[in-house]
C-alpha cells in the first residue's frame, strides 16, 4: 500500500503538530510523520475520506494544500517555517542563522530554496522575511505596551536601529511614530464616539 503525503497550511508550532496528529488519529488514519506543514500517512489516498479530513482540519484552523506544483508546495513549506520561527525563535531569522536552518529543515541548498521562492512569489526570500518581521512588529506595537526596544529584542533584532531602518523602509514611518499614530487613532475614535 502506498503512503499519502499531505501539505497543510497554518502548522506553525509544536502544538499545531500535536493537534493535527490527534485529528488524524481520531479519523482512523495512521500518521507516519507529522512535521511543520507536512504529513505522511500510511493510508492510501483512495481510502481517505477527504471531505471529512478537510472539515476536521479546517475546524482547527488548518488547510490542506492540494493541486499545488512542487515549487508551490516548497514555498508553502518555507512560509510555514518562517511563521514557526517568528513564534518560537525570532532571532533565528537573522540572515546567517536562517539560511542554515531553512536548508537543514527542508533538506535543500539555500540558494535553490531562495531561487524557487523568488520565481514563485515574485519577491526575494530575504524581503519576505523582512516583511513578516515588520508585520509582527506592527502587531506588537499596535496591541501591546512593550517599549520599542523590547519589541526589537522580542523579534530577534540585534538592535533597535536595525528594526527602525527596516520598519521605516516598509511602512514609511518609524516604530515610535507608528505606535503614536495607532494610539491617536484609537483614542480619537473613542472621543468621536462619545460626543
Task: Walk me through this protein's architecture.
The radius of gyration is 20 Å and the shape is globular. Strands 2-3-1-4 form a 4-stranded antiparallel sheet, with helices on both faces. With 195 residues, it is of the alpha+beta class. The chain starts with a strand and ends with a helix. It has 9 helices and 4 strands; from the N terminus they run E-H-E-E-H-E-H-H-H-H-H-H-H. The model is unreliable at 191-195 (pLDDT under 50). Helix 3 crosses helix 5 (110-121) and helix 6 (125-143) packs across helix 8.
* Percentage of residues in DSSP E strands: 5-15%
Structural class estimated from helices and strands: alpha+beta
- Mean of the pLDDT scores? 87
Give, in order, the helices and strands.
EHEEHEHHHHHHH
**Largest sheet strand order:** 2-3-1-4
Number of strands: 4
Regions with little confidence, pLDDT below 50 for 5+ residues:
191-195
- Measured between the Cα atoms of the first and last residue, the distance is 70 Å
- What is the makeup of the main sheet? 4 strands, antiparallel
Large-scale geometry = globular
Individual helix count: 9
Query: What is the gyration radius calculated from CA atoms?
Result: 20 Å
The percent of residues in helical segments reads 55-70%
Query: What oligomeric state best describes the polypeptide chains here?
Result: single chain
